[in-house]
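Can't paste images in this forum, so I'm doing it all in text. The chain is below; anyone willing to post the predicted structure tokens underneath?
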Amino acid sequence: MSKVCEYFFAPHSPFAYLGHARFVAMAKQHQVQVALKPFDLSKVFGLSGGLPLAKRAPQRQAYRLKELARWSAYLELPMHLQPTYFPVQSDAAARLIIATQLAHGTTAALDLTGAIMRGIWAEQKNIADNDTLLAIVNSLGHDGMSLLKSSETASVQAEFDRFTEEASAANVFGAPWYIVDGEGYWGQDRLDFVERALAAK
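Text version of the structure:
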């Protein structure tokens, strides 16, 4: 039986964007099953004492931008540090990812996740806009209208709520968050440790 890595993330997280492609590649390399769990980061912030970006101290906000610039350059990933559509509400995008996973499987959902994240951070797209989401999912060869309708159902909302509750129960307080063999790793800058855990027999 292959290992499982729980992958908690919010589609609008810049650090999730920076780590997404690397995480997907290492999961594939080590033949690890990904349990994809987009969740409501704002609710988890409230429970864990975190602050939304706009309420953080100026020095913390300034350092965040420096870190994003460093990682973008290091990973050679295109990134607008202050994209036009950010902060952005990403619940609809999260539900679309869930609907895609239910309809087409985890690989398709991971591909869509990457496209949505690039949309915000590299392509200046508004992922809170349904027409934008429709164009993104159609570009991947799916029936975007059908998936958008599915994403608005009570069953998909229930999955989104469940993932948020699971994140809270697992003491998740940021995104991205990876859990391997019951141990949590916060942030794309912990992916070296995640890979060690995935590679361990």
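The CA atoms of residues 28 and 128 lie 30 Å apart. The two ends are 11 Å apart (CA to CA).
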